[in-house]
Amino acid sequence: xxxxxxxxxxxxxxxxxxxxxxxxxxxxxxxxxxxxxxxxxxxxxxxxxxxxxxxxxxxxxxxxxxxxxxxxxxxxxxxxxxxxxxxxxxxxxxxxxxxxxxxxxxxxxxxxxxxxxxxxxxxxxxxxxxxxxxxxxxxxxxxxxxxxxxxxxxxxxxxxxxxxxxxxxxxxxxxxxxxxxxxxxxxxxxxxxxxxxxxxxxxxxxxxxxxxxxxxxxxxxxxxxxxxxxxxxxxxxxxxxxxxxxx
Amino acid sequence: xxxxxxxxxxxxxxxxxxxxxxxxxxxxxxxxxxxxxxxxxxxxxxxxxxxxxxxxxxxxxxxxxxxxxxxxxxxxxxxxxxxxxxxxxxxxxxxxxxxxxxxxxxxxxxxxxxxxxxxxxxxxxxxxxxxxxxxxxxxxxxxxxxxxxxxxxxxxxxxxxxxxxxxxxxxxxxxxxxxxxxxxxxxxxxxxxxxxxxxxxxxxxxxxxxxxxxxxxxxxxxxxxxxxxxxxxxxxx
Lengths: 247, 237
Description:
The structure holds 2 protein chains of 2 kinds. Chain A is mostly helical. Chain A is built from 8 helices and no strands. Chain A has helices at residues 11-43, 57-84, 87-119, 127-148, 152-184, 198-230, 235-238, 241-246. In chain A, α1 runs antiparallel to α6 (198-230), α2 runs antiparallel to α3 and α2 crosses α5 (152-184). Residues 185-190 of chain A have low confidence and may be disordered. Chain B has one domain. Chain B has helices spanning 9-33, 35-55, 60-81, 84-92, 95-101, 106-135, 140-167, 174-201, 207-236. In chain B, α6 (106-135) runs antiparallel to α7 (140-167), α6 (106-135) crosses α9 and α7 (140-167) packs antiparallel against α8.
């Protein structure tokens, strides 16, 4: 039996789906995070070269990865929103932006905590750090542009154009910063060369899945709120049981 | 006479060229009618460049090391400051709407406006940069590389800036917002442009930097006018 995916492009049909799925993803995120943190902080051995400080990577690597990945997903929804003029795609892009910004911020924050004992500094102009910081600025730009435009439909399309221009620029920014960095200073200390123990990898994968599940849950909750806010004038919102109970 | 539905490629190309040259000539003429406005923007560049030695030190070796970066950052800021000229005035008096309604393709008109913007704000900065570079004690070779980099890089600033300027048309606090949107996108231009001078001063090959700037210019020239035109249409809705 084929599922008619277009059916879910309508906010009215997607809202119940989002509201039903979000708690499951949130619960999965919590369970995976507990398991991942347990494996990472209790089971996994101390790193031979970096000591206990390396354990920050169980939060750092998944968030850094999600920061980049969420931007790609945002660009995907933005492209759909521009190409097909679908409202829900733009709402998804809007719902993802704060999660992506949070992930980029956490990656930088935990990176600073890892860098202090390992490199001896909170901040170095490392290529990945610098490009993550610029990625955070791009997220802020999209969120700020959204907030500055009153008409949500105009904000949808303006943010979509900005997200796509940014998506084309993200790889260019990354390579330019990496190139600039190699001009200025030698390669920094990295994880390369250290083969990861099996338990470390397991902990990392669990935390990665937890970050995925959490981003999905947060985006679904947020998109639910966005749908209700934007469609508040629609008849179907007024017919919702919660709306009836409130009035 | 061919109908709209059956226009051939030659006609489309001449349409695009017509829109481009018309917008270019119009915007340059308008800019030249308010020369003091252009002068103020150029003075902004000079003043910013003058502030850095005062804030750090007049030591020549240090200034020569700082110079390329400072001159590039000042060029970025000057470009940013002049972005409202691109579309805001035309939107305020309704000209922009007429441009969007005209039979000429909007990306061609936007390209002409961007070219005029560069000619009136970017090119003066390029021409002035050797003078500013002398303040920083750069030698003749480094000044040549700097000017070449600026000549290739400032059009990219105008092209990317046009997208930001169009996206923020008529929104709240658009001045600060356009900086947040556009400055992160300027980063590669800054790195390659200032990097070219640094590489030259270090005795390394600098042509790769300039080649990358040239490649960036071609890519931006092909893509940015379409993104800016789409943003203009969004703003006019």
